[in-house]
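During the reporting period the student researcher (J.K.) took over the structure-prediction task from the postdoctoral fellow and processed the backlog of single-chain submissions. One of the processed entries is reproduced below for the supervisory committee.
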Amino acid sequence: MQLNTIQKYYSLDELALMLGCSKNTLRYNPKFPKGIQLSKRRTVYDITEVKSYLESNRVQ
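J.K. obtained the following structure tokens:
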């Protein structure tokens, strides 16, 4: 059993906590990557897509 493994998918709540912004800021941003719908109320986001989005929008 491996401990401290990095997750590949995160929920919007987890991403908002990591990035320090509100869920609505991420949810209603048209450039933010689209999530994967797991069920009617559960959507997850691929962390590699989120990281590439953040890199492309980083202010220099």
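The committee noted the following: The mean pLDDT is 87.
J.K. will present the remaining backlog at the next meeting.
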